[in-house]
Design brief:
319 residues; alpha/beta; Rossmann fold; Elongation Factor Tu (Ef-tu), domain 3; 6-stranded parallel sheet; 6-stranded antiparallel barrel; 10 helices; elongated
């Protein structure tokens, strides 16, 4: 898959293409429907498929300080899009100047002059241009003047657990923040992931017999609610079952919120300085302060046991 950052990176001889545009944070199941349809139509038309996205998130430029928690960094989104068969991804630097482009100017500057769009595939709520004045109707109207078609894909609605809400990044972020990672996974189509570099912490886990990887998460990461979770720690290409702690470590009167993962039954791991991924499978319990270290150790032992059971059950279902 080709990756371009900015319009100047697009090859001069780029021909017609099928395009879809959006932030696509998380590449959730709704996004997968849109992107998958774009890939399908591109293959039918014999042209490449292109996803256009933005960095930073447009809200941070339009309303500074309002950057939403991110479900996936750009490199992860690119990986997920590549798995869907996308041929190229264009990351447009979203600046104050860029935000002032009218819908018509955006279409000419990006879709017509550079990507030579033959078809644009979007969801029903797609907005673009200065002050989000453009919608799918405007996009289609402009397409009649600039020789491209528009196809709108309805987003499916998740089950009763989500109150019948359409798949959306906003809903997914809310579920993650509330600790409902099972609900978030229903929308994402996979467990929610947090990434970052392993840094040195207080090393209390090592002293207690449960050494953890203290993950310094990427900026604006959507982090689950405080608590203990079952999941996986992936480092250097190896995916390991893990018990994960999110919170301020109230047992030792901590104040800094951290994400720490214990690779179950692994001894002698040296992960300092490595970029790792933590996937959240299931909620185990809330964060608590215990009466004694002995009680804490008993709880950790139960957490590890319960995490192992949940992971084994999940993997058995998938086999």
């Amino acid at each position: 898959m080709q990756r371009w950052r900015g319009l100047e990176d697009i090859p001069q001889d780029w021909g017609r293409s099928v395009v879809t545009i959006g932030s696509y944070d998380g590449v959730h199941r709704g996004h997968q429907l849109i992107i998958g349809r774009a890939v399908q139509r591109a293959r039918e038309l014999g042209v490449p498929s292109v996803v256009v996205t933005f960095d930073p998130h447009p809200s941070e430029v339009v309303r500074p300080g309002s950057h939403p928690p991110l479900l996936a960094p750009h490199h992860r989104r690119a990986e997920l899009m590549a798995e869907l068969g996308v041929d190229a991804i264009l990351i447009l630097p979203f600046t104050s100047e860029f935000s002032k482009l009218s819908a018509a100017d955006f279409v000419v500057k990006v879709l017509v002059d550079k990507l030579h769009a033959e078809l644009v595939v979007e969801g029903p709520n797609f907005r673009f241009g200065h002050k989000a004045a453009g919608n799918v109707e405007v996009l289609a109207e402009l397409g009649r003047s600039h020789d491209y078609e528009v196809e709108v894909i309805d987003l499916r609605v998740r089950g009763e657990a989500g109150g019948g809400e359409p798949f959306s990044s906003t809903l997914t972020r809310r579920l993650v923040t509330e600790g409902d990672i099972e609900g978030a996974a229903e929308i994402l189509g996979r467990p929610h992931r947090v990434e970052g570099v392993v840094v040195r912490g207080a090393q209390r886990g090592r002293e207690l017999g449960y050494p953890t990887a203290n993950v310094e998460t990427l900026p604006h990461t959507a982090i689950p609610a405080d608590g203990v979770y079952a999941g996986w720690l992936t480092a250097a290409g190896e995916r390991m079952p893990a018990a994960i702690s999110v919170g301020t470590n109230p047992q030792f009167d901590g104040t800094e919120r951290t994400v720490e993962a214990y690779a179950i039954d692994r001894v002698g791991l040296d992960l300092y300085g490595l970029h790792v991924a933590v996937d959240f499978l299931a909620y185990v319990r809330g964060m608590a302060k215990f009466d004694s270290i002995e009680d804490l150790l008993e709880a950790i032992g139960n957490d590890v046991k319960r995490s192992s059971e949940l992971i084994e059950a999940y993997e058995a279902e998938r086999d």
